[in-house]
Amino acid sequence: MPLIVAELVHQFDWYQATIHAMPEALIAELMANLPEGIQRTNGKGFNSFSNRADLHDENGEVYATVMHGGYNPHPNVKSTSDHAPALAGVLRHRWPDHRVSRLDVAVDARGDGLFDECVRLMSAVGRSHRLKGEKILPDDLDDGSTYYLGSRSSPLRVRCYEKGKQLFKETGDPVWRNFFDWTRIELQVRPEKAFKSTAATLEPADFWGCAQWTRDLASGVLDLRPEAVTMKPTRIADHERAMRALTAQYGPTILRQVERLGSWQAFSDDLQRRLGARLDQAA
Questions:
Q1: Exposed, middle or buried, 128 (CB in 10 Å: 0-12/13-18/19+)?
Q2: What is the mean pLDDT of each run of 10 residues along the chain (283 residues)?
Q3: Angle between the 114-129 and 212-221 helix axes, to the nearest 10 degrees?
Q4: Cα–Cα separations (whole angstroms), residue 215 to 8, 166, 175, 212
Q5: Chain centroid to CA 109
Q6: Nearest alpha-carbon partner for 185 in 127, 115, 111
Q7: How much is the CA Rg of the chain, to the nearest whole Å?
Q8: Cα separation of 179 and 28, whole Å?
């Protein structure tokens, strides 16, 4: 029986991607989709980017960071924590062909002894797949412990930590003592090569299918049985990625055309006519 059987929400806690767009156009689109009052502060870039634009509120909380300029022909944008799902939504709607640099998928649950039981199951999965596990135990247990599974250099890594205790340590607010049983599990994914584009089309829970060990972890801890996801390019995967990008970008236009013409058959006939005319012109 899975450790956690309650219905869980899988959401992005970190979303970072390279966008094929002009930096100012990207920044303008992001600011148009962020809450009112968001300000822009420019600074020096990192990792070979010459410029940085932080989009933040009046209290300095950063909603998104755009890196651009330098040797990189395309800007890179990042959002973390509670703001990551909103950034992912904007990019997937406006630039569905973006390439993901990194994403984290977070799952939250509460229960007495839940963290220790999660660590036990993660350690068992690690031994089964010969993966390195590491537990960080603070001197003050109220600061919260963390357990990592997978190496730092791996495209996949999972961490489990005591979220309520972490927030108590960061804020000092005693209200978080009421949430000391709050455990968070995060899957960190660093896509490589063609999978950078595929990652832009998958839902958060889908990423638990990226390896056999993450599938085992998802079924044993999260009551989730994800389909296998290949992180290595294949012709079928490339075609499916292209079709997903097509439907994401042009799906609404297609549906409007079907409604205008009256049926899918009429749409199919119209599309064949248009493609045939284009092929004739190319010839």
A1: exposed
A2: 66 97 95 91 93 95 96 94 95 95 96 93 95 93 95 95 94 93 96 93 96 95 90 68 78 91 92 77 55
A3: 150
A4: 16, 27, 35, 5
A5: 19
A6: 115
A7: 22
A8: 38
The number of residues in the chain equals 283
What's residue 59's pLDDT? 93
Report the pLDDT value the prediction gives residue 4, as an integer from 0 to 100.
58
Gap between the Cα atoms of 216 and 11, Å rounded: 19
Are the CB atoms for 155 and 214 separated by under 8 Å? no
Q: What is the pTM of this model?
A: 0.80
Residue 45 and residue 98: Cα distance in Å, rounded? 20
End-to-end Cα spacing for the chain:
62
Place of tokens 């999965």: 125
Q: Do 142 and 170 form a contact (C-beta atoms < 8 A)? A: no
Q: What is the model's pLDDT at position 237?
A: 59
Distance in angstroms (rounded) separating the CA atoms of residues 217 and 221:
6
**What is the β-pairing status of strands 39-44 and 133-136?**
unpaired
Would you say 89 and 81 are in contact if contact means Cβ atoms under 8 Å apart? no
Please tell me the predicted confidence (pLDDT) of residue 233. Answer: 64
SS3 assignment for the chain: CCCCCCCCCCEEEEEEEECCCCHHHHHHHHHHHCCCCCEEEEEECCCCCCEEEEEECCCCCEEEEEEECCCCCCCEEEEEHHHHHHHHHHHHHHCCCCEEEEEEEEEEEECCCHHHHHHHHHHHHHHHHCCCEEEECCCCHHHCCEEEECCCCCCEEEEEEEHHHHHHHHHCCHHHHHHCCEEEEEEEECCCCCHHHHHHHCCHHHHHHCCHHHHHHHHHHCCCCCCCCCCCCCHHHHHHHHHHHHHHHHHHHHHHHHHHHCCHHHHHHHHHHHHHHHHHHHC
